[in-house]
Structures
1.
Amino acid sequence: MPLPVHSDSVSQQGYLSNRLNSLINYRKERGLYRSRRIVASPQSTNLTVDKASLLNFCSNDYLGLANDSRVKAACKRGIDTWGVGAGASHLVCGHTSAHHELEEALADFLTRESVLLFSSGYAANVGVINGLLGEGDCVFQDRLNHASLLDGGWISRAEHHWYEHKDYSDLEEGLIRSQGNGEEKTKERIQLVVSDGVFSMDGDECDLVKIVETAKKHSASVMIDDAHGIGCVGHGGTGIIDPNKITTKDVPILVGTLGKAFGTAGAFVAGDKALIDFLVQRARNYIYSTAMPSAIAVASLKSLEIVKDESWRREKLQDNIQYFHQCLSQLDGLKDNSSIIFPALITASKTAIQPIILGCAERASRLSQKLESNGILVSAIRPPTVPPQTSRLRITLNTMHSFQDIDRLFDILSENLS
Ligand SMILES: *Cc1c(COP(=O)(O)O)cnc(C)c1O
């Protein structure tokens, strides 16, 4: 093929830019444009943005560990011991005893045989699903699952089934339908039911007992992504899997992240030895990606210790959630205002994630801007992150918020929600 002449490539460039600008303008006109804030301070209840101090209600640092002095000291120690970069993938020469120790500690914490670290939750979900499934297999996903779970499903080329959010009879219909498609192949193929543990944009929890029951009935396996649960909910912060109701065999694949409640970075999958061993062979983004820095593993190990030892962090978070609900129920005119939905009141989200659903994207953006001009940071979540007409403010609470902080949020909300 002849090389393109210079002027052609210039006009190609021009064409691409014009096309991109028109797509960007389309988003701007509809309140869908996304931009990044430049933060000039560490994670905390107060963030410095453009020299202003903003009260932060949008971080996933639920237990206040991202800037904890002990976690920071561990990370520095880790750098002194290991340097910065891991240098290679885990399978080449990047897997250190720091990674290994963290994997074993996490496995012990979650009473699983084995754990495998990934450099992010996104990578873990894509790696696990794409590693396990291929053509002929089937994946069943809650419609509100995290984007990384959906992407893992698409990439794997497995047959993809959606079920309506937490509608497990819809899941069952899907399982029955797919078995009809597969006929003689049913026995060999893997059927994987995948769900968020705590849904990231709504804060509600999946009904794990129902998922397990339904999956068992049709010989399907279950994978739970408990990114927002582990550390925050459950006995000792072990997440939404309640060992009194569910065994580890019922949920053979459990994913958790380190970037949220643990305040560091990276993620992991927990399961039995066969699962982890298989993923080491097959998860492409594990195999072909540089290992997380060892210092991050050292820091995460310290976080895990704190997560286990300091249950007051979870208790304080729960107190904040209760106080938030109390403020919500006192918000004037709320019940008469049918154009605002507070799922927190309806589903009583027990988690740190408390959405206020406002409908159209412009409305959510406007309220978010209004809050920001009053010194409060709450992000507006818009399509495609959430379904059309469910744009929302996503308020996240954390251990470090005081009741006064929550009062301040409600002062501004009540002035602007009519
Ligand atoms: C944040 C999140 C992820 C991604 O984790 P990262 O470590 O941030 O890549 C995966 N699943 C869910 C449900 C999440 O909320």
2.
Amino acid sequence: MTDLSAVEGSASVLRIDLDALRANYRLLRDRVAPAECAAVVKANSYGLGAREVATALLGEGCRTFFVARLSEAEALKGTLCDDSRIFILNGLAPGSEARCAALGALPVLNSHSQIANWRALAKAKGRALPAALQIDSGMSRLGLSPEDAIALAADETLHADIDLHLIMTHLACADAPERSVSDAQLANFQAVRAHFPDVPGSIANSGGIFLSPAFRCEVARPGVALYGVALVEDAAAIRPVVRLDVRVAQIRTVPAGTGVGYGLTFVPDSPRRLATIGIGYADGWPRHLSSVGAAYYKGVRLPIAGRVSMDSITLDISDPAADTLAEGDFVELIGPSQSLDDVARDAGTIAYEILTRLGQRHTRIFTCERPTVLKYEG
Ligand SMILES: *Cc1c(COP(=O)(O)O)cnc(C)c1O
């Protein structure tokens, strides 16, 4: 195991490999070139830390960022440089337009009301305000219908109010290259784009980058692939970014017939050696992993024994290969033995959900060769 001496006293350690993050960015950037590769840093960079992630990506030349909410853009104030821009995917809640304009962030305008509110502020200021326009090309989530967008394009006064930096859409099935719906969405999107000549387009999220080159447009918007999740076979070179190790709080041996944990749902039929570790559903470790998931010690699978509690989990460590595991040692929850995808599959969910719910209680270490190891307690 990598040296964890820097984390003496920590019950759990979430390590974020900024070199892997940067390598993933370069891989995606090279794949979408000559299109621009932006970075989606919403939800605190999928739970990893938006400021640290954005700083690392700025170092790779990334200059366009996407968040979901205005508050997330505000949290990055002072981190992004003057020549970078930040888009707010969900657009603006009514009444927050002035805050957004003051910050210099660019809302993604999804609806007629969002457009009207942004235009009203532009008129009040007497100048065009920057924004993106989202088209619903077939996902029925956010954005104007193609017909409404084409009607909007015919409004000659639009450009006096809105300086359109981007026209975008989002794919419903980007990670399923075998499905033809993405092609239909692309066609719908291109039909609208013809009415907005000279406005750069954006369609590809991580999955979209691995579809045909037509999906790259002028700006790609990867999120999860940056953070180490390889959604499709073609993305196999994506490097894992996250590692989670949790310390053993207590070890005991119980006789056959002893119930373990809430509900006493685990009752072994032979004596067992058990280890309790300090992570639970309050740390985003899904309760669905009760008696299903596992942790690893030196590559040995240690099954979860009974229910996942709020702050702890009990592992069955009876495997003789785990004999040397002692109180105070770390076991691996996410790492070389168990990927985010493995955990997600066991929990009946997707890697995105595991990642974004990891929570704030782990000691976070951002590792990189250069410049230094940054350590955050939290
Ligand atoms: C979250 C999101 C992305 C990034 O998606 P990934 O699948 O994580 O790459 C891109 N575009 C929009 C509109 C999103 O909501």
